[in-house]
Amino acid sequence: SPVKVTKICCIGAGYVGGPTCSVIALKCPHIRVTIVDLNQARIDAWNSDDFNLPIYEPGLEDVVRQARGRNLFFSTDVDKAIEEADLIFVSVNTPTKKSGVGAGFAADLNYVELATRRIATIARSNKIVVEKSTVPCRTAESMRTILEANSKPNCRFDILSNPEFLAEGTAMTDLFKPDRVLIGSLQTPEGISACQSLAQVYANWVPKECILTVGLWSSELSKLAANAMLAQRISSINALSAICEATGANIDEVSNAVGYDTRIGPKFLKASVGFGGSCFQKDILNLVYLSESLHLPEVAAYWRQVVDMNEYQKRRFSQRVVDTLFKTITGKRIAVLGFAFKADTGDTRESAAITLIKDFLSERAFVNVYDPKVVHEQIWMDLQEASPLVPLDNIKKQVTISPSAFEAAQGADAIVIATEWKEFRDIDWERLYKGMNKPAFVFDGRLLVDAEKLTKIGFKVTTIGRPS
Ligand code: NAD
Ligand code: UGA
């Protein structure tokens, strides 16, 4: 019969490990959950007295306040947590490789492998090892080989795949009421039994019919497939937004009309300045690499186009800003509102704002940037990484981080909305207008503001997916 899980260890206290295992602790008071990480600063933040957590996610603090110290613990003592646990989530980062074979495409599995090797070295009792990170199809096999080659006698490992589908900004609601929980296992009696152990954990709050159990490889591939198809919808609508701008059609009206078809559905059809986030691009490139390794070049090219279209969308938007501002932005000041890759998160990974600002800087414009949640240090790091050859001091001469949208707009020629923070819709636009150079331009990269209202104030408004 399946092992009843009483102690869980989660390796990786990031955007996935932190929220996911905090919710498990909240919903399963009988399970002791320890989230570990090598990064001391991150763990200190999770443990901070004033709950100044390392990631911003609406509703997260509340959950951590309820469970921390009761059955939820954060620690850098990775070995102790591994030793004690009967089930271990591996929730470490899997970024795109920057060098070596598959550079620019393949997932860097080094962190997964190091965590796996640590488990093999430390474990003295049976463990269920759960792949939570997003990984290429068949990674579980490599994990099993490593674990089995290094295991102690009488110590068995079962490997499960349990990909995470939460989106940042809505992580807590996604975790409380997931569309589905997916668990993949080998279809052996041991594999199925391990799968049941994990399913029982989720069954504490997820309805049974939403817990899908499948084969290991299907589970791994389903995660890449889901992200690829979500990103594909955005690239499709963004491709159509270019046609709208050239023809006079309105992308919001097109999305709405198309989304009314129940087979298509209304979600994820919002045109934008391009998708960002740590995963869409990474996971599609991963799928492209997988397809190429499997000698399926047509399949690789098909998915590749989703990323190419996204790059095109960002480029097209910065070009439109320059063209509209009388074909030069040299010496002009541009206020960029929003730096996070989407609203309600402080995360900036692959944010479109980074590319836009880089483009503006290369045109020798000045940029004021304001984001309600992103920490300043992160903005400097991202801008430096985007332009590695430009000394940071030079970047700082061109870029100012403003404490509010109002101050960002002071003395600016144009406002560019890069993130759909609600506060940008509700700000006092008349007040912003007064502080700007005239003509004052607004470029709405997020279909966020009421263009008519702003035009009445005096702004010249350019909206994605609408003709100028
Ligand atoms: P993250 O970078 O925020 O967190 C990963 C953490 O793992 C880091 O804090 C790092 O220090 C730690 N770590 C790395 N190696 C370690 C080791 N050997 N021992 C202990 N700690 C170690 O990453 P994330 O955003 O949480 O993503 C994790 C995985 O989940 C990725 O594979 C990602 O694709 C996937 N995923 C992410 C999201 C998301 O919204 N961010 C959603 C679904 C799936
Ligand atoms: C995405 C998926 O939605 C999650 O299911 C998945 O677990 C996660 O990736 C992951 O694997 O990391 P996330 O990147 O956090 O979640 O956020 P999304 O809401 O998917 O937004 C991604 C990007 O697409 C954002 O830049 C957002 O602004 C953009 N987007 C989204 C659009 O441009 N238009 C839309 O209609 C929707």
From TrEMBL:
One Gene Ontology molecular-function label: NAD binding
The keyword Endoplasmic reticulum belongs to this UniProt entry's keyword annotation: no
Gene3D superfamilies attached to this UniProt entry: Cytochrome c1, transmembrane anchor, C-terminal, NAD(P)-binding Rossmann-like Domain
Active-site residue list: C279 (nucleophile)
InterPro entries with a match to the protein in the record: 6-PGluconate_DH-like_C_sf (IPR008927), NAD(P)-bd_dom_sf (IPR036291), UDP-Glc/GDP-Man (IPR017476), UDP-Glc/GDP-Man_DH_C (IPR014027), UDP-Glc/GDP-Man_DH_C_sf (IPR036220), UDP-Glc/GDP-Man_DH_dimer (IPR014026), UDP-Glc/GDP-Man_DH_N (IPR001732), UDPglc_DH_euk (IPR028356)
GO cellular component: nucleus
Entry's Gene Ontology BP terms: glycosaminoglycan biosynthetic process; UDP-glucuronate biosynthetic process
Catalytic activity annotation: UDP-alpha-D-glucose + 2 NAD(+) + H2O = UDP-alpha-D-glucuronate + 2 NADH + 3 H(+)
Coiled coil region boundaries: none
Sequence ranges assigned to domain UDP-glucose/GDP-mannose dehydrogenase C-terminal in this UniProt record: 335-451
Annotated EC: 1.1.1.22
Binding sites annotated in the UniProt record for NAD(+): 12-17, 37, 42, 92-96, 133-134, 168, 279-282, 349
Binding locations of substrate: 164-168, 223-227, 263, 270-276, 341-342, 446
Keywords: NAD, Oxidoreductase
The protein's enzyme class: oxidoreductase
Pathway: Nucleotide-sugar biosynthesis; UDP-alpha-D-glucuronate biosynthesis; UDP-alpha-D-glucuronate from UDP-alpha-D-glucose: step 1/1
Family membership noted in the UniProt record: Belongs to the UDP-glucose/GDP-mannose dehydrogenase family.
Name of the protein described by the UniProt record: UDP-glucose 6-dehydrogenase
Organism: Agaricus bisporus var. burnettii (strain JB137-S8 / ATCC MYA-4627 / FGSC 10392) (White button mushroom)
